[in-house]
Amino acid sequence: MKFTIDRYQKILIFIIAAYCAFVGFVNPAFFSITTVFDIIRTSSTSLIFAIGLLVVMISGGIDVSFMAIALFGSYTTINIMIAYGIDNLAFAVGLSIIFGAVLGLINASLINWLKLPPFIITLGTQNLFHGIMTTFVSDKSFGAGVLPPCLNQFGRATLFQIQTGSGTIGLSASILPVVFVALATWGLINFTMIGRGIVAVGNDEESARRIGFSPARIRYYVYVWSGILAGLTGIVYVAQINALYPNKLIGGELPIVAAVVIGGAKITGGDGKVFGAILGVLLIYLLNSTLILIGLSSSWNDLFIGSVLVASIATSSYQERIRNRKNLIFTD
Amino acid sequence: MTNSLKKKFFNDINFTILIGLLIAAIVLSAIFLPGGMFSAANIKSMAFQIPEFGFLALAMMLSNLIGGIDLSIISAANTIAIFTAFVLNGTWLPALPEEARIPAGLVVAILTALIFGVFNGLLISKTSAPSLIASLGTMILFQGIGMALTGGVSIGNIAFEFTDFGKAEWAGIPLIFWLFLGAAILLALLLEKTAFGRKFYLYGENKVAARFSGINNEKVCIATFVMTALLAGIAGLIVLSRVNSAKVGYGSSYLLQTIIVCVIGGISPNGGKGRVRGVFIAIVLMQLMSSAFTMLSLSPYTKKLIWGVVLILVLSLNHWIRNLNDSIKKEK
Amino acid sequence: MEPILNVKNITKAFSGVRVLKNVSLTVNRGEIHCLVGENGCGKSTLVKCVSGVYTPDEGEIVLNGQRFTKLTTQQAIQNGVQVIYQDMSLFRHMSVAENIAIEKIRAKGARLINWKDVAGIAAEQTRKINVKIDLEKEIFECPIAIRQLTAICRALAHDAKILVMDEPTTALTKNEVSQLLTIVQELKSQGMSIIFISHKLDEVFSVADVITVIRNGEKIGDYNRAEINEKRLSELMTGREIDYPRYRRDFTENTPLLEVKGLSRKGHFNDISFTLRKGDIVGMIGLLGSGRSEIAMSLFGLNPIDSGEIFVSGEKVSIAAPQDAKRRGIALLPEDRFREGLFTDLKIKENVSSTVIDEISPRGCLDFSEEDRLAEKCIETFKVRAPSRETVVRSLSGGNQQKIVIGKWVETKPNIFIMDSPTVGIDIGSKAEIYEQIHNFAKNGMAFLLISDEVEEILANCNRVLILEKGRIKTILEAQDLRQPDAKKLILEEIGSRDLQPDTEPSTK
Ligand SMILES: Nc1ncnc2c1ncn2[C@@H]1O[C@H](COP(=O)(O)OP(=O)(O)OP(=O)(O)O)[C@@H](O)[C@H]1O
Ligand SMILES: [Mg+2]
């Protein structure tokens, strides 16, 4: 399997390019390396979330607890680090990832056991995880001064810097985990047997079982992977904002779902591309951050994103329906 | 237990459990919150609080009964309220005489609800998009409309005759509670006694078989989402009337609670099974718990934990009962 | 002779209905073992028990001398069981190549996928059975015949010890079928055991060493090919030398109730014209993918046509949805009664009334006593064996379920009744009862379009038969043709499964 850009992705790229051209035409200040670096930095956490969610959606599931997992992982980890005076980035990432994996495991177990729509189950665990964290860990906020310095160092680190007219700007190191996660997930999906099992289960659970995959086990992999990525993102997020709050992130799940759907993942499972999810997030970020540049206030964000989302859902679902009907398959 | 008694018990075990839970909640709060919970003042305040949430829960119930979920109800409620508020405070149709504002506002509310409902219904029935994803799109879209119009500020200064409605009482009971009660009874009759209700349940049970039975699935689907939007719109108007203003983002925490209420009320997330009366009792139960939480001045985080635990617990309990039921059947 | 597979006294029930009753089966190394039996007698269920998809309620399976009471799919694959499932069991959004190769690569225990291997395996397999398929295409873009070939390739890719083929030829042309049967013989000579399921008895006779007959979930017996002939076999399958009473149309009035002219839909069917008169029972028969179900769906408003005209009682109509069809007096008994025909978790009465909700709701309010009455009438007319009208449909037997589906459409008093495979998975008793009802309704003027795989069924019921091939009507047989003694042979020949030159000489081993 080579890395290919399918037709849907081409359309997305075209839309993004056309939109950028339009924004740049209205406001030439848009075309600058600063913009690019900015988008990369601010979208990095969403990108990792989206990639984690993509894997879940390919398997035919959905997850709305990843923000709670990210918060749980990072908040608890950093609380421990503050309490014991640990200042080590690897420790932070490692522990947060472990928390993420465990919570993902809980999600998978509940879904496997209750056999109910994963949306409802993860909506429950979202509240459960957040509630447990705030009730039993802590619900205090921590400012920059108390946080382990390694976090801020990472948050401000740049890979390289460029001189521009308005000063020096650098490419945020946050891109490293994004690139790593994107490549790892792409590899996982396309080059490992587990990954093909995820695709197979998403396509048809029964058929996957017949050729020897265990859908229950595949779901463990999927939700644990999504949990691990969430744990990682939690640390990246805290490093970027350089403060620790017990109530951030939560509530931001659905826009990520929207991005992944715009990126071409099927909620019915079996189909979805890492590159598509990245494009989906970028499109949403562009709309979010550039409306001001074309003279609209940011209150127009949702209207634009909603329209794009509805249009993309309508076209892709309709195509699927036509194809199914052609094969005399009725789903509703 | 004799066999027929056993059967009866298990047939409506959900309702039996609900009644049991309700009694337990009443007894517990009578013991631990004497005077507080069942003071006349508190009962009245509960009766004032139930409807706005209750209408949303009924809306969620309808979408659950057809095997879907409607994430857009809350943003629809808010945006409908915003439209109405613009008419009521004279921003729109300023030429209208004062006394015509309320009727005009109601007409606008109904029209908006119709448009939103038809839009959802068309999107879902004509493209076969899964309602979870489709309503995520319309949720962002409806919210985006409200946001673009208001910029996120609350729209107030509305005709005070309208705000009186939210405070009015009849026979010592809030008018809005009568309204809610009436709506619930009407809905129960509609679903259980009429031709439409039967088609609605058949559609929820097995959409494909409904289509193959010559039921007009598109019509049923659109009607359902129109009712959903109307119920949401009423909730929006009640909020508008009670808090005197409309705003994007109000009541977003209700989403989880409406889903919990439906699950507790015995609505199967897979559609086709469940009745209004169960949801009604679950709504009352929910309000008892909310009141108790307020009296105990629990933090929002603790509440979250409890809601999460409740949802997972109820799902597990249902699962356990189902298994028990099956094993009893097998014995036979 | 050493047995490689031993199925011992297997029983399997679905929601209380036993579909396999104490079935045993022994397959030897290097043997082609055919399973035959009527639609729904339990062949596929037996196969799924052998491959670990279902766990039998009772009994055990001995594979390579190893005993299993709870066989998993992985264990079955490890022990060399490969299955071509009847529903093909493919992955829609995966390429043909991956569908062919993935199971083999997985079973080798590979953790990583090498896409060169995938392409290699796929190419090798398609070459082996000598077909040309675009290996890069995703399955959902492929027609049914390609899917069947893909499923065959996937099973062959494996170095299986036991290859189970559950109706692998339903969508294939004669050439492809004979190619496949040659390969089956080859595999046998290499020592592989093959369980072959087919309704086409000529295929069975051309490859079988042993034939096992299953009837209604019970094993009737094992027979060497040499000791049995086709006639005897069909008797064993159906249980008696049944001669279903034949239907004779005796109306003189010939104005068409339904007239179809030049109906076409790209990729489905082409230029289909026929008429249904009062009291006609017209049969439609052909391979999977020949267009028969597609035509039925079009007449019922579920498959839009590109061109052509439909006349109901002389009036030109456009049928865009099932409710239009219902209004015009057209009823459809769908092929898949679980998904399309029934609300399995609802009661009999709610199923029966599902087509006439508006009719039993004066001023929009359901008349529950009328609903009860309809249900009682249906139970009585069709002799539905059920405790009461309140019984949940899921717990009925297949035959009684099907009667409910027919009954719910009879409530609409249709003029034209389209039936797609009405007796699949139904016991002989119910089958005869259903035929009797069909004849009764036809004698009262209802017209039927009967789609079936079973030639016997066509012969017993139809006074005209349309034989379809690749979306076109190939032959029309009239009542007098059907009364010829060799009508069955004629139909089978026309369907196109006969030119394999089965070696009717019993081979000596
Ligand atoms: N998953 C299931 N749930 C309930 N009933 C089932 C299920 N699978 C099969 N059946 C029923 O079991 C019976 C046997 O089905 P099976 O598919 O084994 O028949 P078959 O002999 O393979 O028929 P065919 O020749 O049509 O393929 C049928 O009556 C069918 O309706
Ligand atoms: Mg079968």
Keywords:
A: 332 residues; mainly alpha; ABC transporter involved in vitamin B12 uptake, BtuC; two-stranded antiparallel ribbon; 4% strand; C: 509 residues; alpha/beta; Rossmann fold; 3 domains; six-stranded mixed beta sheet; 18 helices; 20 strands; 34% helix; 25% strand; disordered C terminus; binds adenosine-5'-triphosphate; binds magnesium ion
Care to describe what's here?
The complex is a heterotrimer of chains A (about 325), B (about 325) and C (about 500). Chain A is mainly alpha-helical and about 325 residues long. The two termini of chain A are about 35 Å apart. In chain A, α1 packs parallel to α12 (about 275-290). Chain A has helices at about 5-25, 35-60, 65-85, 90-115, 120-135, 150-155, 175-190, 195-205, 205-210, 215-240, 255-260, 275-290, 300-325, and strands spanning about 160-165, 165-170. With about 325 residues, chain B is mainly alpha-helical. Chain B has one domain. Chain B is about 75% helix and about 0% strand. Chain B is built from 14 helices and 2 strands. Chain C has 3 domains: about 5-240, P-loop containing nucleotide triphosphate hydrolases (Rossmann fold); about 245-330 and about 415-500, P-loop containing nucleotide triphosphate hydrolases (Rossmann fold), CATH 3.40.50.300; about 340-410, no CATH class. In chain C, about 35% of the residues lie in helices and about 25% in strands. Chain C is built from 18 helices and 20 strands. In chain C, α4 (about 115-130) packs across α5. Chain C is globular, with a radius of gyration of 24 Å. The model of chain C is unreliable at about 495-509 (pLDDT under 50). Chains in contact: A-B, A-C, B-C. At the A-B interface, α4, α5, α11 and α13 of A face α5, α6, α10, α12 and α14 of B. The complex binds adenosine-5'-triphosphate and magnesium ion. Magnesium ion binds near residues 43, 44, 86 and 166 of chain C.
